[in-house]
User: Fold this.
Amino acid sequence: MKPNTLPKCFPATAEEWERLIEQAPESVTDPDCPYDPNDAAAVAAFWDNAIVSHSLPELREKLAARRRGRPVQGEPKTAISLRLPVSVLDAWKASGPGWQTRMVEDLSRHAPV
Assistant:
């Protein structure tokens, strides 16, 4: 492309900059933004966990170093398949929310050491 056909990306003069600044809104409303762009604390909090990188290999290393998934808790759990009579399972479920945790606690009390 010839230089005179390139699109004008930035204002060329200080007057053009001043005119654009005067026309700019006082605040920004963006429904797709995950934080309030008008709140400096919200902006800073959002970007606190950002990964700063100057090259793709460095970025890949930093991303690989981040632990993915749920945080490791005290004692890891293992998923199993267990066949129980329907009446037993229904009784546990009828005891209300948290029935699985209570079942584990009861099993733990009776587990051989």
In short: Helices lie at 14-23, 40-47, 56-65, 86-94, 99-109.
